[in-house]
């Protein structure tokens, strides 16, 4: 019984990670890596500051990973993944717009006070 289970699991893993690997899978893995890096960047920035921080790199990793994952989902024709990543990319872009607007306003205020 355990030998049969071992063969079944081994066959499944071989099929998923060897037989089905193509350039789209490679793209999906790269995209997931970029998407995961945003959490690493955010965590390290927060640890350094001693409080929750969302650095600009978080949004760039979110957007780049999200767009690549959306392309992968479109190719795989996965409606759940398409909806999730499509909405996510919109949210990341909107948040980046807020950050950039806030930075510009901060520079404008600092520039006016200094002159």
TrEMBL record:
Residues 27-98 form the Lipid A biosynthesis N-terminal domain. It comes from the Bacteria. GO terms for molecular function: lipid-A-disaccharide synthase activity. Keywords: Membrane, Transmembrane, Transmembrane helix. The chain crosses the membrane at residues 23-45, 57-75. Pfam families: LAB_N. It comes from Rhodoplanes roseus. One of its GO terms (cellular component) is membrane. The keyword Transmembrane applies. One of its GO terms (biological process) is lipid A biosynthetic process. This is Lipid A biosynthesis N-terminal domain-containing protein.
